[in-house]
């Protein structure tokens, strides 16, 4: 049940990443039209950058779950039995630690910028914690997805991302 709930959360973040990708397209098209009309859209590049960051980070957990990330599976597939499981645990543990540490510091940065009421330096001042939140949420979800697969491997199950590699249309759903 927890796995299905997390899968829904990862899917929602993936959909939101797609929404931000469409927003980039809309911003770029609006800039093109504005230039043809000899006008500008203030901070359009800045907003497209915010959307790019949100797209990149919010999609991490969903794409990991679907087996789309580059991993060490080329090496781990050559191993069998306990060696395979041990190497998978090691890779997921290192990945979880790095991602967890990055998520921790990113969340701390967002909280700090919120407390300081910092804004962007563009023509349109935006509270900096708003665009940084997409990055923080995406990293937290990615860390949770990696930890979830680590726990599965420790308990003797296959990681969910392997299901996504074998059945890409199912996108790693159990």
Automatic annotation (TrEMBL):
Q: Which UniProt keywords apply?
A: Cell inner membrane, Cell membrane, Membrane, Transmembrane, Transmembrane helix, Transport
Record's Gene Ontology CC terms? plasma membrane
Signal peptide (UniProt feature, chain positions): none
Q: Which GO terms describe its molecular function?
A: transmembrane transporter activity
Classification via InterPro entries: DctQ, TRAP_DctQ
Residue limits of the Tripartite ATP-independent periplasmic transporters DctQ component domain?
A: 24-154
Cellular localisation: Cell inner membrane
What's its membrane topology? Answer: Multi-pass membrane protein
Primary location: membrane
Could you provide one GO biological process annotation from this protein's UniProt record? C4-dicarboxylate transport
| Transmembrane annotation, as ranges | 12-34, 46-65, 86-108, 128-147
Pfam families documented for this protein: DctQ
**Which family does the record claim for this protein?**
Belongs to the TRAP transporter small permease family.
Function, please?
Part of the tripartite ATP-independent periplasmic (TRAP) transport system.
Instruction: Outline the subunit composition.
Output: The complex comprises the extracytoplasmic solute receptor protein and the two transmembrane proteins.
Q: What is this protein called?
A: TRAP transporter small permease protein
Q: Give the organism, scientific name.
A: Jannaschia faecimaris
